[in-house]
Design goal:
The chain is an alpha/beta fold and 364 residues long. It is built from ten helices and eleven strands. The chain is 37% helix and 10% strand. About 4% of the residues have low confidence.
């Protein structure tokens, strides 16, 4: 589908963004923040209301109004007929996903100085959706991570719902000292909590802005990490992956000469659709602990999948939990530092020592 350019239609000066008042969620909190990252919207004001006559005065409306009309800057997803998804995805979009779909590349270009249509911008656009935005869309649309039929018999060991961003945004809705009217409307203010302005709607709007900041700053940290760390690492991991047979005849060991975020890229290059894929899997990854000269080296077992704690081939059981001289004597490798009790990672004082640990481990 075609991606909308930054809208140029202006009804008000500065442009007015509309969303609903009342209980707010992570998706519209992020949608508003994303819009304000763009030059068109950076001076914008915010109106939170469900009044159609007031929403009609807004330059852009998100998560309310019953319309998805990009040419009119209307981005709601609550219509019964709405079924828009991100390219090559099946998750129905929320207001956050809609804004990101149409303006994500422009936002990425604005924050990174990349060209909006460059391959790197496309990679970041896809990556940010997959790793961040899609979960917000799914949460707002009531879509489970797993099919209910596959989890109906499972019992959680502990409750983890309170540490999600959506839960933290939900917490910001609650103010037991003031009860806001669901039909009131108000423009955002900067003195909502002052003694001279106890207006419940103004207080609610201020809490919404706190939620918007929480979601937006998290998005920017993700973007910065993917742009400055994940994206540059892609070529480094590809080079190491293509040279892996220099370390082991079956290509089971990957070596980096500086700390590198390798996991995500390794699974991508190993996937059957990748031109670099082969039948052999990487079992161990070697790298220095830091960029400091003379740093100790790590040997890490590759997990069976991106999110798994299980290793494809843990370091030998006989080495696990041992340290220093005891580990060196047991493994027959000089300079050993440790092997974790689970076997997922170990260390040696030198690169050659880590390589020797890998050579022995793959055969045990």
């Amino acid at each position: 589908m075609s991606i909308s350019p930054v809208p140029k239609r202006v009804k008000t000066s500065p442009p007015l963004i509309g969303t609903h008042n009342g209980h707010f969620h992570a998706d519209e909190a992020l949608a508003v923040y994303l819009l304000r990252l763009l030059p068109t919207y950076s001076p914008s004001t915010l109106l939170r209301t469900r009044d159609p006559s007031l929403l009609s005065t807004c330059h852009t409306v998100v998560d309310v109004g019953g319309e998805y009309e990009p040419t009119q800057n209307r981005y709601d997803h609550h219509q019964r007929t709405f079924d828009t998804t991100f390219p090559n995805k099946s998750t129905k979009l929320s207001s956050a996903g809609l804004v990101y779909l149409h303006f994500g590349k422009a936002i990425i270009a604005q924050r990174t100085a990349l060209h909006p249509e460059s391959p790197d911008t496309e990679l970041l656009w896809q990556k940010l959706y997959t790793e961040f935005i899609e979960a917000i869309d799914a949460n707002d649309n009531g879509i489970s991570v797993y099919p209910p039929s596959e989890t109906s018999s499972l019992t959680k060991r502990f409750n983890d719902s309170g540490i999600t961003l959506s839960s933290l945004v939900s917490d910001l809705n609650h103010d037991f000292s003031i009860s806001a009217s669901p039909t009131s409307t108000a423009h955002e203010t900067n003195d909502a909590n002052s003694a001279s302005d106890p207006d419940p709607q103004a207080v609610e709007d201020t809490r919404f802005l706190a939620a918007s900041s929480l979601m937006g700053t998290t998005f920017l940290r993700k973007l910065n990490n993917f742009h400055t760390s994940w994206l540059p690492a892609r070529s480094t991991v590809l080079a190491a992956y293509e040279n892996r047979f220099e370390n082991d005849p079956q290509g089971r060991t990957l070596v980096f000469h500086e700390p590198t975020p390798w996991k995500d890229h390794l699974y991508t290059f190993e996937s059957p659709s990748s031109p670099s894929a082969s039948d052999s899997q990487v079992l161990y990854v070697l790298y220095p602990e830091s960029a400091v000269q003379g740093a100790k080296w790590r040997i890490q077992a590759v997990p069976v999948s991106r999110d798994s704690f299980e290793s494809r081939k843990p370091l030998p059981e006989a080495w696990r939990g041992l340290r220093d001289e005891e580990l060196s004597a047991k493994s027959g490798v000089e300079g050993c530092v440790f092997v974790h009790a689970s076997g997922f990672i170990g260390g040696n004082g030198r690169e050659e020592g880590a390589r020797e640990m890998a050579r022995r481990a793959v055969e045990m």
